[in-house]
Structure formats: structure tokens, C-alpha cells
Amino acid sequence: MSKTNESLMQRRNAAVPRGVGQIHPIFADKAENATVTDVEGREFIDFAGGIAVLNTGHLHPKIIAAVQAQLGKLTHTCFQVLAYEPYVELAEKVAARVPGDFAKKTLLVTTGSEAVENAVKIARAATGRAGVIAFTGGYHGRTMMTLSLTGKVVPYSAGMGLMPGGVYRAQYPCELHGVSVDDSIASIERVFKNDAEPRDIAAIIIEPVQGEGGFYVAPKEFMQRLRALCDQHGILLIADEVQTGAGRTGTFFAMEQMGVAADLTTFAKSIAGGFPVAGVCGKAEYMDAIAPGGLGGTYAGSPIACAAALAVMEVFEEEKLLDRCKAVGERLVTGLKAIQAKHKSIGDVRALGAMIAVELFENGDLHKPNAALTGQIVAKAREKGLILLSCGTYGNVLRILVPLTAPDAQLDQGLAIIAECFDEMA
Questions:
Q1: Which Pfam family, any one of them, does this sequence belong to (predicted)?
Q2: Are 202 and 129 in contact (CB under 8 A)?
């Protein structure tokens, strides 16, 4: 009996806890570049990229070749027991790309949440302080500490009780929703006045472009003022570049466009083209604050994932993917703005590089987020063969994270499907 999406969904529901969500009731069988084929043989254009993991596309030949070569050497020793060169080489190459004119060191781990957890550990050890300031709408992971930092309770921490303390929430600047740079800075000052002295704050953590929160771009002026505030009070600035990193925004790290450097930078997702590696890169003096044994993990910096990540960096150079990122972003934004001109429900189209969002409202009223229409567009697009994602505090944002290697014809096909969906829902 041939497998179907429906039969596999039944098995999934019986075997996997319901807390593991699934956006699309589809089981993928194989994929190549920006095309995914399900178990029933149907092809889909992938505008999700495994949630920003596949900037270099599915099964990029160079990355697969690097992984296959590494498989013939060794797959695991635990770096803390027996080291291997790919870890060191990747640490060097990441440090060379992370913004900041200072000596850097790089810790490799396995997931984005783990990277953020370790960034907080490092900040606490380096400063001798415990508090952290995070932002409304921020997403930093699903582990206990990262859930404290994440600015959205449902669904991430609903029903789990209070998360670890010592985290304070400031407002993320967002002109569209009436939060100015001044407002955001004032909200940090309120934390200092009402909740915790600056000398008790180890770090301020921020996404240069919010991911799950809705793809809002932090204004350059805000990042510069935030950097100055951190310097004034001896607070470390952590840039969470898990979703923005590895070329998604048109520079390898989004902070390159912000005019300032963070003290610590977290990265994961697209850094290894689908293989699990993540990390923290920062000022050497801060990274060295924790004694031997305080950092690491059994699978941290897997040699296979390191080999993949080194290949990703070569692909970016050889295929000029940062230039391609800008071209992809411009092509999609132009097409989406043409759709916006016909539909009042689209209140905003925004992007940094190829990190693109379309925010939907009822009749264009910015006070009425339209989550229902967003969900309907995602479902209708799937019926037409396009995989989309939604995000945002109110679930009213369509986000596009298509592989940068997708050909123009496929980008145009995806745009045509999105246009059809809006026309049919109008």
C-alpha cells in the first residue's frame, strides 16, 4: 500500500506529542534546491526554506560532497575529548565574518536555542551580573532560559508556569505600530528605574530583524543608541542572528548593516545548509570568561555539520550569493508591492535583503491584524503548490524565506500563486 500524507498524518498523531506543531499536513519525500516533492509525488515550491535554514537550497551539490567526504573520515569524537580541524576552521571563518574590529573567539554548539543559552551564560560570567533585557515580539528559542527571553507566551510557554526570572522586557521599535526609537530607549530606561539597576544587567539581547515576531527591522539609529547605552553601563550587547545570519539579509550578518558591532553574536539555521550546527562568536575576553568544562556538549560542533558549514561559506563566495540575495529580495518585493496595490488587506511589504514579510490587516486598518486571512492565504497557496509561512505577534504576517539559489522563473511562479490567492480571497 502506497504511503499518503493522510495515512502518515494518522501515524504521526498517534506517535508524536501534539506540542510538536506542523504547519502543513504534508510529508516530504525528497527535495532539490527550492522544490520539495511529497510522498504522493506532488511538487511544491519552497518559500519556507525549513524556516530560514536553506539559504543555499536543498541538497546543494557542494555541501553534500563535503558531507560525504567527512563521512569517510569520522562522524564523532566529541570535540572536548579528541578535537578535529573542521571545528577550528569554522570557528576562525565565523570570527572573520562577524562584525567588530576586535579579537574574537567562537563556540560551536548544535541548536539556536543552545547558542542563546550559552551567550547568556558567557555574558553573566563576563560581567558578574545576572539580569537580561529582551524585547517584545522577540523569539530566542524553546528551552527554559530562551523561553524567558522570548516575547510570546502562546504557544511557546503556555501552560508551563513561570520561566526563569531575571529577564526584563523592553519595547522593540516598530514605526508601523507606533513604537518610535525614543519610545524603545525610554522603555529600557524604565527597566532601569522600576525593575533593575544597570549594574545588575549582564546583557541586552536583540534580533537585528525580528524573526517570529514579524520581520521588523531594527532602525540603524536605534542600534547605535542601544550600543551607546550598553557601553555607558558596561552591559554586553547580544545580537541574535540565528534567523538573520548566513546571508539572509544581503550581508552575511545583518549587524553589518546596523553601523555597530555586538559583543556576542549567536548564529545557527542556514550556517550549515540543513545540518545542525550553531554557535556564539564574540570578543575573545568575554568568550574566555568561563573556565574549561563550562562550555560545550557531546554533539557540539559535529564534524559533519562543520564540514557542511565550511562548504556553505565557499558556496556564498563562489556563487556570489550575497549579491543574489539582494536581487531575490528586490524581485520579490517588487512583485509583492504590485499585489499590495490591488489589495487593501496588505498593510505593509517590508524586507531586509531576502528576509521578506507581508503584513495583513482588515480593510487596511493597522489596528486590526488579520490572522484569519493570513492563515487562509497560507492554506490556499499550499493547494496551488507553494509552501509559505506565517509569523507575527498576532499571526498576521506572511514571511518568505526562499532559498537564495531559487531560479527567477520559480520566484515568479511563487509570486503568481500569491497573487492568485489574494485575488480569490478578495
A1: Aminotran_3
A2: yes
Collect all residues with Cβ–Cβ distance below 8 Å to 37 and sequence separation of at least 6.
Answer: 28, 29, 30, 31, 43, 44
State phi, psi for 398 to the nearest 5 degrees.
Answer: -85, 130
Q: Answer positive or negative: Cα dihedral of 125, 127, 130, 136.
A: negative
Helical H runs in 195-219? none
Q: What contacts 406, CB < 8 A, 6 or more positions away?
A: 33, 34, 45, 46, 57, 328
What was the pLDDT predicted at 374? 98
CB atoms within 10 A of CB 42: 12
What CATH class is the domain 5-59+320-424? alpha beta
> Residue 360 is inside which H or E element, if any?
strand 355-360
Kindly state the average pLDDT of the residues 90-98: 98
> What is the per-residue pLDDT across 145-201, written as a single tens digit (0 to 9) for each?
999 999 999 999 999 999 999 999 999 999 999 999 999 999 999 999 999 999 999
In order of 116, 129, 337, the CA distances from 222 in angstroms are: 22, 24, 26
Residue at 50: amino acid letter: G
What cell does 82 get? Answer: 579528541
Does domain 74-319 correspond to CATH entry 3.40.640.10?
yes
Q: In whole angstroms, what is the distance from residue 7 CA to residue 153 CA?
A: 32
Phi-psi region of 286 (alpha: psi -120 to 50; beta: other; left: phi over 0): alpha
Q: Strands, E, within 222-288: which ranges?
A: 236-240, 264-267, 278-283
pTM (whole model) above 0.70:
yes
Residues whose CB falls within 8 Å of the CB of residue 182, separated by 6 or more in sequence, listed in order: none
Distance spanning both ends of the chain, measured CA to CA: 41
Any idea what the Cα angle at residue 167 is, between residues 165 and 173, rounded to 5°? 155
Q: Let me know the angle formed at the C-alpha of 305 by 214 and 100, rounded to the nearest 5 degrees.
A: 60
Give pLDDT tens digits for 349-383: 999 999 999 999 999 999 999 999 999 999 999 99
Q: Are strands 236-240 and 201-206 parallel, antiparallel or unpaired?
A: parallel
Residue ranges per domain, the chain?
Answer: 5-59+320-424, 74-319
**What strand order describes the sheet that includes 346-352?**
346-352, 355-360, 397-400, 389-391
Closest CA to 310 of 272, 365, 347: 272
